[in-house]
Every structure is written in structure tokens, then in C-alpha cells.
Amino acid sequence: MNKDFLNTITKLLGELGLSAGIFNLVDDDTTALQSQDFIFVRNNKVGDYFLLAEIQISELHLVNRDLQISLMSYLNYLITDAGVNDLQPLDGVPFLALDSNFEKNTTLLLFTNKIGDITNLLTQITEIEENEYFFKKQVVLLPTKFLGNLGNKISSSTDFEITRYLQNCMNDTEKFKQFMSKTNEDTDYAGCAQFFEKLPFLHLKIEKSESNSLQNMFDNEIAKNTNKYSITINTGEEEEGSKLAILDKNLEEINKVALNYASKMEESDINLDAEKLLNNILGNGLYE
Questions:
Q1: Cβ(280)–Cβ(232) under 8 Å?
Q2: Which domain of life is it from (predicted)?
Q3: Which of the four pLDDT bands, split at 50, 70 and 90, describes residue 257?
Q4: Cα–Cα dist 135/51, whole Å
Q5: Strand partners, 140
């Protein structure tokens, strides 16, 4: 298993307080992956299990059949007396207490590096994630240098907090703008976004922005829509060249005016012209 991947996942699980263990499929002849190490994780609060592994893009075709069968078989072996010692602890992470509930409640998380254009991969990834057999599945497609960058941060500082780094990265508005303008670029923001999108046990905390908050957006919209609007209606007087009245009303009063007008017309047995009425309500014409 790649050292940067192992260090990143170990650090993340430790900070989140999840329990975990690591095992190896090296003796399995059915599925020969470049990395045969798998990290088995449990979220003890809700009882969910997760299998985390590195996989090469060239190995994705093995997932839906060979890999799933091998993993399910091995997990059943781990809960037997013969296999109980095969699951090993991760440094600084609470050790996983495995039970048989994993059979119906495990998500397989496959981490792979994005290499070049991924257009041709999307169909393959969709087939994996929509496959209903054995495990729920997510393919975490990461920028090539993302795990290396995280690994360097972890090894260079004992105070580095990966969860804080991920949260701060996602809440950086400048990085967000750059990401949205060039979504295909390999950036740390793209990697962080994949973590939050694909890892069910990682949750994004949105920071409030006083100048650009959602509430302020609502308030501004309401303020714009309290402007005066001109409504031109027929007064209903029977004089030649019918008198016209132009009323200034707040937006919230338009509906009442329209209903009152329609009611008067109905009382007079006059057929309404809905299109002209709407134009008059919007101030685009006269009802003559």
C-alpha cells in the first residue's frame, strides 16, 4: 500500500475517532491487484462498515466480479477463529471489533489516481457504483499529486490536522472559483471535493459569510421586489372612451388588485381577456 495513502487514511480515521484494522489478500489467487492491502473501518456511532483500498485504473474492470467475491469471502473468514488474528491494528486508530453485520452494511471505497482525460472512465465508474451486488461502492478519483501533498503535510508537522485542512480548503472561496472555472484541472481543491463527495463518514461544515450569506441574498431579493409597479386597469365606467386609472401598488398588492378587478368583470357578465389582463398587471399595456 502506498505510504502517502496509508498515512492520509490513518490520520483521517484517527481524527474522526473511527475504529479500523488492516488485512492483506496476498494469498488470494482470484484477484491479483497491485496493492493487496485493505483497510476495514467501522463508524461505531451508526454501525456502518467501510472497506478502503487503492486500485489502478487498469484494475477497475475486476471490481464488480472477482474483487467483490474475494473480499466478501475473506471478510467471512476474518470473523472465524482461524482468521481472527489476520486483521491488524493501525497506529493511533482504535482497533475494529468485527461482527457479522458487515455483510449487509459495507461500502467499498476505491481510491485511484486521475490520469489524463477521464471521459472514457465515466461509464466504467458508473457501472461499478450502480452495481447492487455484495457491497455499496464508490470510486474516489483523485488528482495525481493530491495524496503526495497530504502525505508531505502529515510528515512535516506533528500539529497538522487533516480534517481542518480539508474543511478550510473547501471553504476557500478563491479556490472554489478557480475550481468551478476549470473543473478538469488537477488541484488540491478537486481532491478535497472528492473526499467530501465520496466518503460517507466525512461531513462538510459550511462557514457563514456575513457579506455573502444566504440570508443576505434573500433580504436583497425581497428589497428589490418591494419597488412600486404601475398597474393600468379599466375603471368599468360606461362613459365614452372609458376612463383609465393608473395605480401604484407594492408587489404584494398586485394579486389583490387583479382578483378584485376580475370579480367586478364577472359581476358585469363581461368575458375576460386573460392575456390583456396579464399585460396590464405587468404594466405592459392598456386594457381598452
A1: yes
A2: Bacteria
A3: low
A4: 9
A5: 111
Helix, coil or strand: residue 268? coil
β-bridge partners, 231: 247
Higher pLDDT, 283 or 66: 66
Q: Give the Cβ contact number of residue 154 at 10 Å.
A: 19
Q: In Å, how far from its chain's centre is CA 78?
A: 33
Distant-in-sequence, close-in-space partners of 284: CB < 8 Å, separation ≥ 6: none
Contact call for residues 80 and 100 (beta carbons, < 8 A):
no
Q: 96 — alpha (psi -120 to 50), left (phi > 0) or beta?
A: beta
- Taking the CA atoms of residue 33, residue 192, residue 118 and residue 35 in that order, the dihedral angle to the nearest 10 degrees is -10
Higher pLDDT, 39 or 283: 39
Between CA 130 and CA 123 the distance in angstroms is: 11
> How far is Cα 186 from Cα 208, in angstroms, rounded to an integer?
27
Neighbours of 22 (CB within 10 A): 21
User: 106-113 and 48-54: which strand pairing?
Assistant: parallel
Mean per-residue pLDDT of the chain: 77
Examine the pLDDT at 169 and tell me if it is beyond 80: yes
Relative to beta strand 228-234, strand 136-142 is unpaired
Question: Which stretch of DSSP H or E encloses residue 66?
Answer: none
